[in-house]
Amino acid sequence: MQEMEETNQNTTLAMKFTVQKDKLSDAVNRVMKAISTRTTIPILTGIKITAGLDGITLTGSNSDISIKSFIPLEENGSENVEIDKAGSIVLPSRLFSELVRKLPDEQILIEADSRLIAKITSGKAEFSLNGLDPDEYPNLPVINEKDVVSIRKDLLKDLIRQTIYAVSDSETRPVLTGVKWTIKDGRLDCVATDSHRLAQRSVSIESVNETEVFNIVIPGTSLNELSKILDDDDEKNIDLVITANQVLFKTRNMQFYSRLLDGNYPDTSRLIPSDSKTTMTLSTKDLYHSIERASLLAKEERNNVVKLRADGEQVEISSQSAELGRVFETLNTEKFEGETLHISFSAKFMMDALSKIDAQNVRIFFTGPMRPFIIRPIGDEGILMLILPIRTF
Amino acid sequence: MQEMEETNQNTTLAMKFTVQKDKLSDAVNRVMKAISTRTTIPILTGIKITAGLDGITLTGSNSDISIKSFIPLEENGSENVEIDKAGSIVLPSRLFSELVRKLPDEQILIEADSRLIAKITSGKAEFSLNGLDPDEYPNLPVINEKDVVSIRKDLLKDLIRQTIYAVSDSETRPVLTGVKWTIKDGRLDCVATDSHRLAQRSVSIESVNETEVFNIVIPGTSLNELSKILDDDDEKNIDLVITANQVLFKTRNMQFYSRLLDGNYPDTSRLIPSDSKTTMTLSTKDLYHSIERASLLAKEERNNVVKLRADGEQVEISSQSAELGRVFETLNTEKFEGETLHISFSAKFMMDALSKIDAQNVRIFFTGPMRPFIIRPIGDEGILMLILPIRTF
């Protein structure tokens, strides 16, 4: 204590506030999701802390995505923050987040001085941390909030989950690592493909500006991180603002920025067959578990390929591994129309698709053993999943 | 199905039984704890399945430890197993354990034929797996069950937890990677040391043979695995049988074998100081959390060293990192006797020791800044922990 006061005589106070530990801890956890320890820009390993007159803002960024979390002075009648001096500092993120969680008292006093040293006091524990210059922290893009689209958070979460799994993980065509979003005529269409499979979902949304058309490609990794923080507050909706190269998702106390991907997204509509030679309805869960069992052997081989043979009411799922053995299983179809079918496909792709479907039954449309086939949940016409088969016969 | 029956015509049935899925799954999970995927002995990647007249025995082994799990025909009035033909086979462990978990029906039919092919049928799923020859599976040691010691499982679990953390993880003195157990005069003494710290606990036990003295060193890794399976059944006690180079722990349906370590375990009694110059009583939890906070900075440095300064009723805990900053905290002692003290030690060693203590308060006995100090929980005289300090002053 004594030592601290001495050094303070030669410096000026740059920031000072008291905050509730649980509020700070929540906000830190949120912005940590944007921070990468592998960044090549040293200041981005830190959390930027800004004390303003209305509350505390924390910022984390990895240049692709940035997250801001705001702690207002008061909320629901209880006091979160008391500001003694507005200011800002950047503190090492990993250490700061661990430290906040482990402080002994429910109140935390944070001070920063002109030498960029932060003093963090809680109960009888007193930390003195070397900070970084907040002026060196990159500015977040200023986004014109004219064209705002509002979307239900639970719907957004489903949209992400049901499309993101089909993005490409290869950088050979970078635009395919993102999900294409089209906003037009009160509808949001999302589509993802890695050129071996495709997932799309279309939902109706409320847009302030009904005449404008937006076409953007959001990186899959950004949507993945966004999805993780959607449950963090109890607001039902999230606002979406789009610019030429950034998208911003925001609720009252949280802002999530992502860069957009450049490049022309391929026209996927021509991939989707419009006719069907064999159509069958199956229990989503039974089919999933049957493929999962077949995959136990198939995954030991290079391709993880399972075979499906459909002949009227019975569907046979099988696979084999030269070394381990083979598996064979029959499923009853709920409904079957069209020709007898032999087809092979990736067990992983099928399981990925089926696991995103909440409906009890799926309808699968085949147009032959070497043509892409379509999976649609019964009861939601907005969802379509497509898989390219693998030649084995 | 058809295909199976055809091949069966050229072979003879080697084993056939039906088992409840949950019972088989539990038994498989238990023996999997002994199986290493990195073994150099191919047959040890498998699970040995033996159908006898009284039930099914599964065996897993990594040569250091072996686990047998028995499923009796009947238990608590419900039927577990029906044996059609006694016999045995070895099946690939990882595949078999995943498969059992994912089978569709509550009943599983397992058959093996003379070609070592196993057929596993459950509901409409049918697996055919290539097995290995059970005659090639190593025999477990035959242990003479004359000298049996019985111990309460919860006590054994505590004993392991409170000593195993202090074993050496270096192979330079292999005997120190184990915990030394001494059974003598109705007492079991356990001690572990890596030569920088020591943990010991002594408990009274019931032994059939009160006159015999046992001195064994059990590998820490074995005790760690044993600890994980102790909760697997609802028996209160476990039996212990010791031979020259093996120890067997057994309950009604489980047997756990471990090899013993050779070599002379050092006499640790002379390490423990009998006098004390500074003695203090502290809250176990408060001290732990204070060290944990100091460690946040200390662990960024090479040694993870924290400093303790005791001067009457106040204890100061501090640490620093040249790069990140420093931390300083005071604790009130419950009781303090003796000289003023400055000492430095590993935060990790202190946290390891304190986290094994269930008592509310600990008494710490210091005999100077460069002498080992002793931690004892207040209320359990059987437990002693010792730590060597680090020179920093």
Automatic annotation (TrEMBL), chains A, B:
CDD domains: beta_clamp. It is found in: Cytoplasm. Signal peptide: none annotated. InterPro entries: DNA_clamp_sf, DNA_polIII_beta, DNA_polIII_beta_C, DNA_polIII_beta_cen, DNA_polIII_beta_N. GO terms for biological process: DNA strand elongation involved in DNA replication. GO terms for cellular component: cytoplasm; DNA polymerase III complex. Residues 15-141 form the DNA polymerase III beta sliding clamp N-terminal domain. SMART domains: POL3Bc. GO terms for molecular function: 3'-5' exonuclease activity; DNA binding; DNA-directed DNA polymerase activity. The keyword Transferase applies. It holds the Pfam family DNA_pol3_beta_3. The keyword Lipid metabolism does not apply. Its main location: cytoplasm. Keywords: Cytoplasm, DNA replication, DNA-binding, DNA-directed DNA polymerase, Nucleotidyltransferase, Transferase. Residues 270-391 form the DNA polymerase III beta sliding clamp C-terminal domain. Residues 151-267 form the DNA polymerase III beta sliding clamp central domain. Confers DNA tethering and processivity to DNA polymerases and other proteins. Acts as a clamp, forming a ring around DNA (a reaction catalyzed by the clamp-loading complex) which diffuses in an ATP-independent manner freely and bidirectionally along dsDNA. Initially characterized for its ability to contact the catalytic subunit of DNA polymerase III (Pol III), a complex, multichain enzyme responsible for most of the replicative synthesis in bacteria; Pol III exhibits 3'-5' exonuclease proofreading activity. Forms a ring-shaped head-to-tail homodimer around DNA. Belongs to the beta sliding clamp family. This is Beta sliding clamp.
